[in-house]
């Protein structure tokens, strides 16, 4: 897949996820093989007013590239100014515009999914951004506002006419939030009606589903979000399956906890131990998902305040699990 002059080594894309896709997790996703990683959305006004937190969110480690940095906003002037800032002052490869965020705090400001109701505004905003920057500009959108206003094809065509370099489409409406299922037939319609790359997104939870969607709907890339939470192996296994048809086994508990701690250590480098450990509680619960007998370790994770206590808690759980498994083997 190629976006502007940026080439991806495979079509597997880590979805932008607020509170998740910071450099710590993005680098892990990249090390697990993702062809492109997307950063969490950043407010255009936050960038413009040089809000410290927003500017920190623009940091890109060289090893993460190629990387797409996402901005959101509702007004042309501030959106273009923020895009210019990202263009000049960051080493992101792609500038992505958020046109899918469903939360009222964002849509009330005419940002995020609000644009989905107005293809003319999409054209105007994207064209102004493309004109102002050197880096390729892409858009991530939902299929529509609600089931009566599904303008996915028109909206994607507006992006293309405006000079957008690619479009990622999440197959849900704004009103659906995360309910129901993603409508891939509409994503397929978008693909048939534009000539820029189309990245399909929504409900991909196995490598086989990723392959099936690439083939059935002809999309150029597959974007994976929730299935990668605490599970970067989903990215690795998908890349492996696409490249050589091989289904790599799921990791064992020790391997999962090793990566969980690598994630925490990288988060500590960025945010300091206090904040990182608290933020890591939700990630640790995701890393534990699917493993046996996690009841008490999950409760414990939510009490953790230091790196070493988190490490001890997780590996005591692994030791206990491995001991029980080896006893089980002896018995049987
Ligand atoms: C925790 C979380 C945060 C998200 N933040 C963003 C965001 O910052 N920008 C964006 O465009 N989409 C965001 N999304 C939407 C995802 O990028 C993706 O479109 C959605 O989760 C559907 O894909 P999935 O079924 O693979 O999870 C977020 C989703 C989740 C679960």
UniProtKB/TrEMBL annotation:
Gene3D superfamilies: Aldolase class I, Putative flavin oxidoreducatase, domain 2. Keywords: Flavoprotein, FMN, NADP, Oxidoreductase, RNA-binding, tRNA processing, tRNA-binding. Residues 14-313 form the DUS-like FMN-binding domain. The keyword Iron-sulfur does not apply. It holds the Pfam family Dus. Its cofactor is FMN. It comes from the Bacteria. It catalyses: a 5,6-dihydrouridine in tRNA + NADP(+) = a uridine in tRNA + NADPH + H(+); a 5,6-dihydrouridine in tRNA + NAD(+) = a uridine in tRNA + NADH + H(+). Its EC number is 1.3.1.-. Catalyzes the synthesis of 5,6-dihydrouridine (D), a modified base found in the D-loop of most tRNAs, via the reduction of the C5-C6 double bond in target uridines. Belongs to the dus family. This is tRNA-dihydrouridine synthase. It comes from Fictibacillus barbaricus.
């Amino acid at each position: 897949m190629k976006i502007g002059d940026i080439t991806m080594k495979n079509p597997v894309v880590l979805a932008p996820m607020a509170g998740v896709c910071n450099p710590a997790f993005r680098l892990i996703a990249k090390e697990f093989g993702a062809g492109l990683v997307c950063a969490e959305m950043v407010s255009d006004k936050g960038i413009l007013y040089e809000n410290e937190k927003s500017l920190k969110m623009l940091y890109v480690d060289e090893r993460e590239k190629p990387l797409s940095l996402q901005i959101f906003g509702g007004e042309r002037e501030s959106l273009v100014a923020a895009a210019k800032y990202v263009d000049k002052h960051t080493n992101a490869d792609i500038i992505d515009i958020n046109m899918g965020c469903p939360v009222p705090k964002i849509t009330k400001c005419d940002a995020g999914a609000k644009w989905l109701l107005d293809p003319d505004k999409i054209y105007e905003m994207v064209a102004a951004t493309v004109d102002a920057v050197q880096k390729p500009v892409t858009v991530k959108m939902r299929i529509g506002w609600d089931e009566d206003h599904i303008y996915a094809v028109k909206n994607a065509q507006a992006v293309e006419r405006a000079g957008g370099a690619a479009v990622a489409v999440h197959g849900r409406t704004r009103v659906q939030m995360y309910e129901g299922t993603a409508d891939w037939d509409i994503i397929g319609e978008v693909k048939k009606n534009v000539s820029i790359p189309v990245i399909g997104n929504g409900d991909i939870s196995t490598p086989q589903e990723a392959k099936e969607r690439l083939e059935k709907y002809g999309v150029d890339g597959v974007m994976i979000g929730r299935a990668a939470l605490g599970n970067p192996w989903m990215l690795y296994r998908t890349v492996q399956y696409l490249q050589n048809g091989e289904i790599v086994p799921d990791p064992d508990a020790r391997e999962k906890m090793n990566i969980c701690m690598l994630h925490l250590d990288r988060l500590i480098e960025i945010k300091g131990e206090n904040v990182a450990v608290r933020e890591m509680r939700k990630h640790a619960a995701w890393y534990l998902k699917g493993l046996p007998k996690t009841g008490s370790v999950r409760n414990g994770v939510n009490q953790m305040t230091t790196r070493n206590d988190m490490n001890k808690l997780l590996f005591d759980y692994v030791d206990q699990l491995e001991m029980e498994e080896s006893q089980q083997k002896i018995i049987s």
